[in-house]
Amino acid sequence: MEDKFKSIKKAGLLGIIGNIFLLVIKASIGFITQSQSMIADSVNSASDILASLMTFIGNRISSEPCDYDHNFGHGKAEYIFSLLISIIMILLSCKLALDTLKHFVQKAHFHFSMILIVVCIVTIITKLALFLYTKKLYQKYHNILLKSNYIDHRNDCVITSFTLISILLGLHEIYWVDSVVGIGISIWILLSGFGIFMESYRILMDVSLDDKTKKVIMNLVKEHEAIKACYNLYSTPVGYNYLVVFTIAVDGNMSTYESHELANHLEKDVEALDKIDKAIVHVHPY
Fold it and tell me: Is-contact 28 115, C-beta < 8 A?
């Protein structure tokens, strides 16, 4: 668990450093050349800095162990900060779309420069490296903050590729594509932010386990012949895992010791599953 939090902390710090570097060069060159797609790209980098910062802070809070006031730890901090990341992305995308649309209506042109192409290439290489690194960590730890970040890095590779195309078209005086790409980037940021918002919202609203995992739990119950029935299976998110509570019915003549031993074994079997943090099994007479 400690390795997990250290890895997420490192990913957050690398994201902050990389995005600050990209923000400075993209914003500087974008405003100098008046390229709307490059300015949009720099705004995207600004949102990425906030996302990486939220990842760092959220990971720090969620890594705190259980205490008297937080019996199941601080895991939901991940989803609270992911929700904040998504709201920031949505607000930035709306502002960006309005500015770029205004630029498009005014038919403003940007000043082509080779440095624009260099900035795009540097951005794509940097973001591709961060994407591969963060996705590898996500596949290992399945953490929503890492997912938010690797999606951001992937989106940036695609976004900057379109920025590069619009800049190259400027060589042939096709300037309108620059504004169209800027608007497209803002829409992309909006959709990505909305996706992260909905995933975080579902967890914070205590959405139950997926049907597949519930079916696996019921199959574990069926392996015990002494269990006559199983009902009232409830679940609630505890950070990135779940607390599961359900009731089993056994022969009323079974001793209290035997019935509780059966429940204890079943709890251990369920807790060994992915996504399950703790299982609580109640025993009733059949």
Answer: no
The helix-helix angle for 77-105 and 176-204 (nearest 10°) equals 160
Just give the CATH number of 211-285. 3.30.70.1350
- Summarised one tens digit per residue, pLDDT across range 83-96 is 887 887 788 788 77
Which residues of the chain, if any, have pLDDT below 70? 1-2, 55, 103, 107-110, 144-145, 239-240
Q: What angle do CA 192, 193, 199 make, to 5 degrees?
A: 95
Question: The tokens 């709201």 sit on which residue?
Answer: 87
Give the per-residue pLDDT at 1: 56
Task: Give the span between the Cα atoms of 39 and 96, in whole angstroms.
Answer: 9
Helices (H) and strands (E) in the chain, counts: 8, 3
How confident is the model at residue 239, as a pLDDT? 65
Q: Which of 188, 121, 200, 112 is nearest to 161 (CA)?
A: 121
CB atoms within 10 A of CB 103: 21
* Cα(76)–Cα(277) distance, integer angstroms: 13
Task: Give yes or no on whether 2-204 and 211-285 have one common fold.
Answer: no
Into which CATH architecture does domain 2-204 fall? Up-down Bundle (1.20)
